Amino acid sequence: MSDTPRAAYLPEGLPSPVPENDGLSAPYWAGLQQNRLLVQRCPHCTTWQFGPEWLCHHCHSFDVEWTEVEPRGRIFSWERIWSPSHDALRGRGPYLAVLVELPHAGHVRMVGNLLGDPLQTITIGTDVEGVFEHHHDAVPRYSLLHWQAAG
């Protein structure tokens, strides 16, 4: 895991990620600002889940808790993006989107950007580690979690 200050991976002009109005994902975003990766776990049946939900997918309990996990995983799938999905990304491609699986957290999966050469060779199963990117000057403040090959 790295939280070394670095230039922002994404360009200016993209919408700032914020929790939904109902606050469901607020603990996740707050955790990122503290260099912590939080995913949900049910204390009744111990099922892990991500993205955030109000109830456990397995036992339907409403007591789902947020649990800190190591921001490490492995690439489950990936895509090299050549066509930008937002005007702010024009001329910035290609870039790499990865689906990262966290084996130590019930194999939950989360989407993110893979740092490094956008033309690098990618192998399914490659170990990756999280890199927290903070935007303290943004309004509202936010942080992102990107991924890089574990070294």
From TrEMBL:
SUPFAM superfamilies attached here?
Nucleic acid-binding proteins
**Top-level taxon of origin:** Bacteria
Molecular function terms in GO for this entry? Answer: DNA binding
Domain ChsH2 rubredoxin-like zinc ribbon, residue spans: 29-65
- Per its UniProt record, what Pfam families does this chain match? OB_ChsH2_C, zf-ChsH2
- ChsH2 C-terminal OB-fold domain segment(s): 66-133
Enumerate the UniProt keywords alphabetically.
DNA-binding
| The protein's name | DNA-binding protein
Organism source for this protein? Bradyrhizobium betae
